[in-house]
Structure formats: C-alpha cells, structure tokens
C-alpha cells in the first residue's frame, strides 16, 4: 500500500495510457513539455477560468515544472493527468482527475481542448467517455464533478 496514494486508487492507480473512442490518452510528463506548451499558448484565450488565471504568463520552464509535478502525482496515485491525442496522434488537449482528499468516491475532473471549431463537442465526448472509463476501472462507483473552460 502506498501511504501517499488516494485510497480510491491504492493499490491500483489508473492506467497511464488508454484509447477512448478514437482518442489516445498518454500521461502528462516532461517528455511532452514543448508540445504541451505550444497547445496551451495557442489556446490561452479559451483556457481562462479553468484553473484561475492560468495560463497567463506561463513560461516553458514553469510548464516543465508542471509536467514533472503531474508525472510524479500520477506515479504516486494522488492525481492523474493525460494528454489527449486524436487518431492521427495530434495533441488536442488534456484531461485530469483529482481525487478529493479526505473523501472517498469523489473526483474533480478537468478537460480542455485546443481552440478548434469542434472544441465544445469534443470536450463533451471526452467527459462522457472518461466518466464511463473511470467507473469501469474502480471497485466502487466514483462521482466525477467536471470542470471545463467556458464556451
């Protein structure tokens, strides 16, 4: 048992990769820092409000720290963050699960898609797919409260 992991995901953390309805999930990590930074910078205007004033003023170095934090949290089973890629391998956004500390069966979910015409439809599809996927992996049902950038 990992004493740092959230009890809903200990001893079985979520998979680092998956394919959901034509989208590939791969872990956010330092390996994707430049690609992630380009996606975030190119979509900064649609991301405002998802995580406070993030990504205002974000630098590549700060993003590298973020990627390292996401990777470590994932490995410890405390939170989970993935890149979203389309069937052609193009980076189209990110999804995150943050289990609510001190509470069982509750997860805060976040999703964002790069600025593109079908962004809102893709976000809705990711939310549906990831909710079903998560509940297919855990022993007890989990309620996900989803957050996404405003339309």
Describe the structure.
- 33% of the residues lie in helices and 24% in strands.
- A hairpin with a 5-residue loop joins β3 and β4.
- The N and C termini lie far apart (41 Å).
- The protein has 151 residues and is of the alpha+beta class.
- A 6-stranded mixed β-sheet has the order 1-2-3-4-5-6, with helices on both faces.
Give a summary of the structure in a few sentences.
By secondary structure, the chain is an alpha+beta fold.
Q: Structural class given helices, strands, pairing?
A: alpha+beta
The string of secondary-structure elements, in order, is EEHHHEEEHE
Fraction of helical residues: 25-40%
Strand count: 6
What is the overall number of helices? 4
The poorly predicted ranges are none
Strand fraction equals 15-25%
User: What is the residue-mean pLDDT, rounded to a whole number?
Assistant: 92
Supply Rg: 15 Å
Identify the strand order in the major beta sheet: 1-2-3-4-5-6
Distance between the termini: 41 Å
Biggest sheet descriptor: 6 strands, mixed
Overall morphology: globular
Topology of helices and strands:
Layout: E1 18-20, E2 23-27, H1 33-42, H2 44-47, H3 60-76, E3 80-85, E4 91-99, E5 106-113, H4 119-137, E6 143-147
Parallel strand pairs: 5-6
Antiparallel strand pairs: 1-2, 2-3, 3-4, 4-5
Keywords summarizing the entry:
4 helices, six-stranded mixed sheet, 24% strand, 33% helix, 151 residues, alpha+beta
């Amino acid at each position: 048992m990992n004493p740092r992991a959230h009890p809903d995901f200990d001893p079985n953390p979520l998979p680092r990769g998956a394919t959901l309805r034509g989208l590939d999930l791969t872990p956010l990590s330092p390996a994707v820092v430049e690609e992630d930074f380009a996606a975030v910078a190119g979509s900064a205007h649609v991301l405002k409000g998802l995580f406070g004033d993030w990504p205002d003023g974000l630098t590549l170095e700060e993003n590298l720290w973020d990627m390292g934090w996401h990777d470590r949290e994932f490995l410890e089973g405390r939170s989970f963050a993935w890149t979203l890629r389309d069937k052609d391998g193009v980076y189209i956004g990110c999804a995150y699960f943050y289990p609510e500390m001190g509470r069982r069966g509750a997860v805060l979910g976040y999703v964002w898609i790069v600025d593109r015409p079908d962004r809102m439809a893709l976000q809705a599809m990711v939310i549906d797919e990831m909710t079903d996927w998560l509940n297919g992996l855990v022993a007890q049902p989990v309620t996900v409260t989803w957050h996404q950038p405003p339309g």
